[in-house]
Amino acid sequence: MITRIEGVGNVPLIRQPEYTFPDGFEDYRPQESLNFNAQMGRVQGHKMFTNVLIARRAGEFMIPETSISYYDDRARRYVNKTLPAINITVLRDPNVVYSYVQDSQFNLTPLTGTVTWMASSAPVHRSKWWLWAGFIFPLLIGSSLLGYLTYRKRINDNPAIQRSRQAYSTAMQKLAEAEQAGSDFKMAYAAIFRAITGFISDKRQTASAGQPDTYYLEHLRQAGLEEDVIKQCKKLLDRCSTIRYAPNTTRTFLNKDIENTKALLQQLRKLL
Predict the structure, then answer these.
(1) Which helix (H) or strand (E) holds 66?
(2) 18 lies in which domain range?
(3) List of long-range contacts for 210-216, beta carbons under 8 Å, 24+ apart
(4) 154 assigned to some structural domain
(5) Final residue in a domain of this structure, among 60, 92, 124
(6) Residue 194 dihedral angles phi and psi, to the nearest 5°
(7) In Å, what is the CA distance from 202 to each residue of 82, 98, 165?
(8) pLDDT at 194 over 70
């Protein structure tokens, strides 16, 4: 399933819409591709998300409608775009090969003769704890394993939890882009800005693009963080906003800001 979003605006910041796939479908991590052109302060291009879906049974299925929001610069407000539901028909593969196991070739013959029933005089050894442990221990292990697998499935099927768990690794990928930007300070500080705001948005489950700096700082206050941490975050966001529009700095200062951002993210990782 391919989702293609195109137009004029900050295309790199677009996130994939959150789809709810039917039971029996396996969704592998989507691949992202980006193509944009920035000239004269105007960014135009497209971003494409490719999901690989595997159906485990035949039938009629539907991916419910979802929505994606973007900022309309002309109207100066956010607009929600509804993506319609998708109907899917899954057919069984007529060429699938079924296999079976043939009967065992054991030569079994019935036993005949006189059967004598005798009462056992051997007492039941209830005092042998290891005998009971041999029965109870596998049950405990099986119950624990079933509970763990249920918990893991609930975690993996929840997009919000996945987004929160991947927040730090996603932010570090953005910082890696800043380190690889070379002398393009504008692009480097834009990556630092996305790393900080994206981490806060993923942890707090909020919008991740088109928001003012105060929006993210307010979420930190709502989470109960100390003012010292909020001031550090504000200082870095102010510096990113300034240099993105007036890139007047050096590589030395950029490296220092990247290290300060890493320290801030590690601190936020413990607190959020």
Answers:
(1) strand 66-72
(2) 2-92
(3) 210/10, 210/13, 210/70, 210/71, 210/78, 213/237, 213/238, 213/241
(4) no
(5) 92
(6) -65, -35
(7) 22, 46, 9
(8) yes
